[in-house]
Amino acid sequence: MSQPTDGVCWMVSAQMVYKWSKATGSGSMIDPMSDPGSKSRYERNGDWWSGQNGLLAGYFKMKTHSSVPMDYAGLSAFMAKHGPVWTGLKKNWGGHSHGHVVVICGAADTGVFIHDPEPMHYGTAMWLTWAQINKAISAITDADYQFSDGCLRPSVVGCTPRERANARLSLRVRAVVNLEHLFH
Questions:
Q1: Are the C-beta atoms of residues 174 and 20 closer than 8 Å to each other?
Q2: 37, 93, 96, 124: which sits with the fewest CB atoms below 10 Å from its CB?
Q3: How far apart are CA 80 and CA 111, in angstroms?
């Protein structure tokens, strides 16, 4: 998915996470366009201050996270449990230098796979190295929360440990493999 104007990466990235949430049945996130205030802000090309990311997550019923492990093992485990991650950062790669929101939707030993709603009208699916993503995340200093997901699902009850592990593995495979079609 791409952003139609320059100030709405926050909304388009939320829509990406919402599509994943609905497609997998993994959460209680609401359609970001169903919130009248957010929809109006989006339609006016209103940007979003990172100091109020928690407020935005509340509007959309996303779960906030103070931190997310930014290494292969930690992020892989986090995404297996929570799915793709709405991430506030400073876009400081490719000659850019501005506050931005992307969705982290995959991890490898070399870095992270993101869906970036820029450039306008196109969007980008790309890999960032661990150094690039960590630099971009650490460059934002005024965020109340930098990470959100669409997953407010309850714990799995009544399953054996093996069934829970298989469900998590299945979810991770769906999240990484099937995300590509959700974001276009």
A1: no
A2: 37
A3: 16
Residue pair 83/104 in contact (Cβ under 8 Å)? The answer is: no
Are 147 and 85 a contacting pair, CB within 8 Å?
yes
How far apart are the C-alpha atoms of 95 and 92, rounded to whole Å?
Answer: 7
DSSP string, the chain: ---SSTT-HHHHHHHHHHHHHHHHT---PPPGGGSHHHHHHHHTT----GGGHHHHHHHHTPEEES----SHHHHHHHHHHH-SEEEEEEE-STT--EEEEEEEEEEETTEEEEEE-PSTTT-EEEEEEHHHHHHHHHT--S-S-SEEES--PPPP-S--HHHHHHHHHHHHHHHHHHHHHHT-
Are residues 100 and 180 in contact, defined by beta-carbon separation less than 8 angstroms? no
Would you state the structure tokens that stand for residue 121, as one six-digit string? 């009208």
Q: For residues 101 and 114, give the distance between their C-alpha atoms in angstroms, rounded to a whole number.
A: 10
Provide the token pair at 5.
Answer: 């104007």
Q: What is the pLDDT of residues 131-173, one digit of tens each?
A: 999 999 999 887 776 777 765 433 223 333 443 344 333 333 3
Supply the pLDDT for residue 160.
38
